[in-house]
Amino acid sequence: KSKPMQELYSLLDKIKSAESTVLVQGENGTGKELIAKAIHYNSPRKDKSFVIQNCSAFNDNLLESELFGHVKGSFTGAIRDKKGLFEQAHKGTFFLDEIGDTSPTMQVKLLRVLQEGTFTPVGSTEPRRVDVRIIAATNRDLKEMVEKGTFREDLYYRLNVINLRVPPLRERKEDIPILIEHFLDKSHVEGQEKKIITKRALEKLYDHTWPGNI
Question: How far is the C-alpha of 84 from the C-alpha of 165, rounded, in Å?
Answer without folding.
Answer: 29
